Amino acid sequence: MSTVSLRSINRRYPGGTHAVQDVSLEVADGEFMVLVGPSGCGKSTTLRMVAGLEPIDSGELYIGEREVSKLVPAERDIAMVFQNYALYPHMTAAENMGFGLRVRGTPKAEIKKRVTEAAELLELGDLVDRKPGKMSGGQRQRVAIGRAIVRQPAAFLFDEPLSNLDAKLRAEMRAELSKLHRRLGATMLYVTHDQVEAMTLGDRICLLRGGVIQQVGTPMELYERPANAFVARFIGTPPMNVWTGEVLAGGRRFRSTGGVELALPQNVSPGPAEVGLRPEHLSLTTVTDGPHLRVHVELVERMGATSLLHARTPGGEIILASMPGSMQVTEAETVTLAYNPDHVRTFPVEVSS
Length: 353
Ligand code: ADP
Description:
This protein is α+β, with helices and mostly antiparallel strands. Helices cover 24% and strands 33% of the residues. It has eight helices and 20 strands. A six-stranded mixed beta sheet has the order 6-7-8-3-9-10, sandwiched between helices. It has a five-stranded antiparallel beta sheet with strand order 13-12-11-14-20. Strands 15-19-16-17-18 form a five-stranded antiparallel beta sheet, with no helix packed on it. Strand 7, helix 5 (167-184) and strand 8 (188-192) form a beta-alpha-beta unit. Bound molecules: adenosine-5'-diphosphate.
C-alpha cells in the first residue's frame, strides 16, 4: 500500500470550467479518504485525474514516492471501482475478477489463488461461477470490488460505488466496505455526494465546493468545528441552523437579520457574521433565565428515536430542533428552546464571487 499525494492539482475543461482548483491533499498509507461535496464540485474529476483517466493540467500527483502525473492508468498501480460496476457480461464472476491479471500475463495458478482469496474475503461463495446477468446489484458491486482487490494495488479508488443500490443494501455495503478497509489496511480514495456515507466511512473527509477544498479533517472535526458556513450546512443531518446577521458591539451577542439573538461563547469582533447552531444542541425548556429562543412550532416530524421540530422565530426565520422521540410537542405551540453558548459557531461572512 502507498500514500497518495495531490500537489496543487488543476483541471480546466476545454469548455472553460475550472473544475478542480489548486487541490492539495495527502492521503496517508492505509487511510480511507472520502472526497465529498454537492454535484458538480469536482469530486469525479479529481478521482479521474488520480486514476489517469483525465489529464492533470498543472500540479503533481505522487503515488508513494513515484510521480505519476503523466503516466497512463495501467502504469499507476491503482485499481478503480466504478458506480456502474463495469463487469463483462459474458464472463463469470471469477473470470471477471481475474481478467485484469490475465491480460498482464500473471501465471494461472497465481490468478486462481488471488481470486479465491478475494472471493473468500468478500464471502462470494458460489457466486464466483455466476455471470453478472444472474446477480443482484449488490452482488455485482462485490465482484467489482473483488476485481480491484486481486490486483493488489497501491491504492483503491471508488467512484460513488453504492449509489445504484437501494437504501438498505447501501447501508449494508457501507458496513462491509468499512470492514474490508480494516482487513486490507488499504489506502482508499472514495467519492460520494452523500455526507452520511462520508461521515461513516472516512478516516478523514475532504469537502469540495466549486472545485476548491473547503476543509479536510476527521468526520468529527468537520462536524464540531466546520471551517465555514458551507461545511456547517453540508455536514450533519438534519443540517445546522445558520443565520446571517451581525455580532453586536461588545462581541458577546449576535443578532440575525430576522432578529434572532444568540449568546456567543467567546468574544468575536463586532460586524457582519454568520452563526450556526445544530438542531441537536437545542432542547425544550420551561426556564427562561438561561440562553434561550422563543419559537413557534410549525411541524413535528416524528422519526421514532427522535422528533424534528420545524419552527419559526418571531422574525420569521426557520429553525430546526431535534428532540427525543418521546417528547410531547404539538404543532402551533409556542415553546422555549434552551441552548449552551459553547455550541454556537461563528463564521466569517462569505464574499460572493
Ligand atoms: P462531481 O463529481 O463533484 O459531480 P465533476 O468532477 O463531474 O463533479 O464536475 C466538475 C465540473 O466540471 C462541473 O461543473 C461539470 O459540469 C464540469 N465537467 C465535468 N466533466 C466535464 C467535461 N467532460 N467537459 C466539460 N466540463 C465538465
